[in-house]
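We modelled the chain as a single entity of 233 amino acids. Its sequence is:
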Amino acid sequence: MKEYRHDALKRMKTIPLFKGLPETQLHDLSRITVLRTFGRGETIFAEGDGADGFYIVLTGRVKIFKLSSEGKEQILHIFTSGEPFGEVPMFLGERFPAYAAALEESLVLYIPKTAFINLIHKDPSLAMNMLALLSIRLKHFTRLVEDLSLKEVPQRLAAYLLYLTKIKNKTEDIELDISKGQLASLLGTIPETLSRILNKMVAQKLIEVRGRKIRIVHTEAIELLASGIKTLT
């Protein structure tokens, strides 16, 4: 990990969490933040570490994951440019409940807890922006828990493909930014099972797959599959 203190103000203007903040507030924030770079696979924090601050991805991708007693990895979420992570345990005064690691070389903004709380006391509008973003995050994780506990793997995959079309503003064509092994972990399954399901979807002309590129051929059928109305035969 490398740390830098320059260029923070310029980069913060592009972060949705701080959208609409006046220049003076951005300047105050830039004075307490640190830019950190992490190499591919490098741990950002471990489960059980004290949450003494939170992070925002500037470039690259960061995975949040749990490890079972057997060492099996379960990816909980993957964060990309502009997205914060680690903020909830920080505000709750708890330790990090999972691991965070860079999926590729990543530049992140680190914001220490004490200094940030002091700024919120000075100007509560910072907290309002975070509440809006955290509400969206809570909806996503509620849906994730539901998918992992109540839905079968084909439903989870279909729902994830629809989710990708939404966040990437695409209607049919999707390019996965993670490996199929990582996607399997994210969906709570194993790569072999994921491959069988993808092959079935291709055989039933629901999707087309070329490497990491997936084209949704039959959107309505994918929506029915995601909702549980339709099943793969």
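As a brief sanity check on the tokenised model: The chain has two domains: 2-138, 151-227. Residues 40 and 211 are 22 Å apart (CA to CA).
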